């Protein structure tokens, strides 16, 4: 990924424009509630050499798996979310409204949709569950290995029709192609490039890392109250990295409007984030 700007634009517009153009933006009826569950991997081994007695992978599914005469699943599609996201993001109207309805791209009467929360995200195992900064170091390979185990052992899915990933999930799709090349028929990576993170993209992340590490309330992750100043800096950088300059200039034409929007975003960001779960909190998690 070069920036969250590009990630947001490409992921959103690709799905919206393709879905709307091909299917005339047909709005689906009310989708059935997804089936949610947790798969627990016992003794999960990370590339770092660390392990967890129990690694929890939360997931949601839509539709029903079908198999051919040889027992091979023929209609499973896995959608992989981006950094700070969850599988549930694909149930929001801007995605579900053009993807899962009758006759749409991933019509759930035809496809078995799998939406995992990846390590460190959502309802899956993450540092704030209790281990804090002592949570094992993990990277893309670990996250993909956990996805594979969820499919194989948790859901009994032995083949995927498609893996579609956005942003961090896009990077996961590349890893899938290298690690399990025969497991899926197709990959659809959206909003990332298979290159090291560097330049501006690395710079703003390092600024957040430094802000968290240098906050006296961080206490190496063993804090009793959130390191507020660090999260304010993190929220400011996320807002800058994920904002579209031309749109922000138009929608926030005055200092007062800009300051109010910044304050509002910071409040919402801080209320919904734990510094231990910030994917860039210590510089060693997946995207770094």
Question: What would you note in describing this structure?
Answer:
The longest helix has 20 residues, at 4-23. With 288 residues, this protein is α/β, with parallel strands linked by helices. The chain is built from eight helices and six strands. It has helices at residues 4-23, 93-99, 140-154, 168-179, 199-214, 228-242, 245-251, 255-272; strands at residues 35-45, 51-62, 76-80, 112-116, 160-166, 184-190. Strands 1-2-4-3-5-6 form a six-stranded mixed sheet. A hairpin with a 5-residue loop joins strand 1 (35-45) and strand 2. Helix 1 (4-23) runs parallel beside helix 2 (93-99) and helix 6 (228-242) packs across helix 8 (255-272). Helices cover 38% and strands 16% of the residues. It is globular and about 65 Å long. The chain folds into two domains: 4-190, Rossmann fold; 199-272, no CATH class.
Produce the secondary structure layout:
Elements: H1 4-23, E1 35-45, E2 51-62, E3 76-80, H2 93-99, E4 112-116, H3 140-154, E5 160-166, H4 168-179, E6 184-190, H5 199-214, H6 228-242, H7 245-251, H8 255-272
Parallel strand pairs: 3-4, 3-5, 5-6
Antiparallel strand pairs: 1-2, 2-4
Helix pairs in contact: 1-2, 3-4, 5-6, 6-8
């Amino acid at each position: 990924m070069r920036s969250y700007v590009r990630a947001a634009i490409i992921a959103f517009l690709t799905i919206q424009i393709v879905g709307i153009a091909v299917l005339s933006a047909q709005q689906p009826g009310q989708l059935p509630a997804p089936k949610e569950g947790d798969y627990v991997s016992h003794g999960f081994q990370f590339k770092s050499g660390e392990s967890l007695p129990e690694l929890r992978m939360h997931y949601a599914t839509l539709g029903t798996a079908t198999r051919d005469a040889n027992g091979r699943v023929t209609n499973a599609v896995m959608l992989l979310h981006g950094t700070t996201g969850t599988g549930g993001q694909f149930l929001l109207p801007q995605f579900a409204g053009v993807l899962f309805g009758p006759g749409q791209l991933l019509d759930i009467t035809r496809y078995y949709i799998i939406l995992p929360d990846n390590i460190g995200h959502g309802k899956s195992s993450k540092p704030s569950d209790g281990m804090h900064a002592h949570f094992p170091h993990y990277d893309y390979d670990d996250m993909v290995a956990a996805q594979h185990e969820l499919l194989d052992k948790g859901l009994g899915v032995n083949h995927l029709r498609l893996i579609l990933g956005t942003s961090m999930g896009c990077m996961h799709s590349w890893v899938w192609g290298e690690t399990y090349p025969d497991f899926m028929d197709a990959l659809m990576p959206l909003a990332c490039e298979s290159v090291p993170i560097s330049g501006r993209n690395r710079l703003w992340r390092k600024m957040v890392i430094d802000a968290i590490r240098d906050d006296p309330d961080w206490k190496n992750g063993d804090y009793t109250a959130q390191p507020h100043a660090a999260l304010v800096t993190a929220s400011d950088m996320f807002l800058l990295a994920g904002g579209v300059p031309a749109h922000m200039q138009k929608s926030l034409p005055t200092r007062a409007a800009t300051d109010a929007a910044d304050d509002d975003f910071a409040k919402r960001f801080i209320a919904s984030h734990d510094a231990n779960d910030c994917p860039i909190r210590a510089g060693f998690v997946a995207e770094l």
